[in-house]
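Readers of this paper often ask what the protein records in our data store actually look like. Nothing more is needed to write down the fold, since each code stands for a local backbone conformation. Below, we set out a record of this kind in full and without editing:
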Amino acid sequence: MTESRTNLAWGALLDLPATGAKHERLTRALRAAVRSGRLPTGSALPPSRVLAADLGCSRWVVTQAYAQLVAEGYLHARVGSATRVRWSPDAEPMQPDAGRPPTSPTRFDLTPGLPDLRAFPRSRWGEALRDQTRRVPFTDLGFPVPGGHSDLRRALADHLHRCRGVVADTDDVVVSTGVTDGAARMFRALRAEGIARVAVEDPGWTRLHHVAREAGLSVVPVPVDEHGLRVEELDRDPSVRAVLSTPAHQFPTGVTLTAGRRAALVEWARRVDGVVLEDDYDSEFRYDHRPLSAVQGMCPQRVVLLGSVSKTLSPALGIGWVVAPPRWCQVLRTSGTARSGPPVLDQLAFARLLRTGGYERHLRSVRRRYRARRAALLAALRRRLPACRVTGTAAGLHLVAHLGAGVDAADVVTAAAARGLRLVDLRTYQVDRREPANCLVLGYGNLADSAVDDAVALLAAAVADQSTRDRPEVVSDRLST
């Protein structure tokens, strides 16, 4: 064994970036150290507790960075052994040590974010695209009109009115490339109006937090409980006049904003002359009863609705929408460019699916598929991890799994990555990370039905690995007393 294989990387200098979340900064620094050769192939990284103490950060920061780099192929993690550098500059795979099995590629992905891409309605989409290609006038083949084609805006206004209880006409709809694009436009509009602070759910989709900061807004975290956003907390900061919320199915906790809090949220917006940004996340997928209508219908003058086809069809289409009061619509249209919207033919194809009922038929089909898959996942968790507790409404494409006292979710993420299972810790989506977390956010949207039980078996093995490793420390402590 060469010296580089045995030489621990404890003394390697890490050039930590000055900006970004701590775990992201550490990830970038470690990746750069590996690629530059300062952490040579085969060298061992310090245990997460040791490196966390050396850097003066939480252990979670280190375990998240390690897990990310394991998933990317830069590191190799094996329970009971050190985490080692796997990547080499010449792209030749590292020869495993004697008796050590090679790193398994990712077999199953339980991270949230994708629908079932196998269920994309290829035939319907192809027919709609061919039909619109034959019919489209040549005048529509230039650059996309800012704000979206009128046919799609009209079809969306009708669909959202029927299915989501939205109060809007064609002129109130702005077509975007997705929720992130729509939110970014709205954040810039808020900043131009002098609104400098926006409240966000904690935990929540941190990507939108970054987008808000990029627009010049300060992000104010507001906690979420079993009833959804704690609306009463908004009054703690009188400078807050905007809030981003996911009432239909909160991400990531999976709870639904209760009727009383929906009313309180609208009342707050009226009282402070504010605006609610309603991310209509997962609203189409409710399995215990019909989906609740959008909050926008309660107060169209104060609520801006954000939606997309990323979770219903595919994020590859890049089609989203913003339904906003007239005071915001003009600035939302002009805040993009002529080339910033979805392609015209894709807009027209989606409009055709909406008009002909093809989109709603697709939703009914995948809703049945996701309901059955969620039930299979719950059954597998009960069978293989009986101590695990699941929370969240029977809706959407993910659920929250509480692993039980004494189980470190970050360690489970790392152990699972070594087994070929991708997971995400709930703390990834938290702003306030002072409390330790033992929760995983399990996404099942793009998981094959036949893979559910095998994926949960790997999860159970990763949890057992951590429990086995921690048990001797507990016994030792008891003996010493």
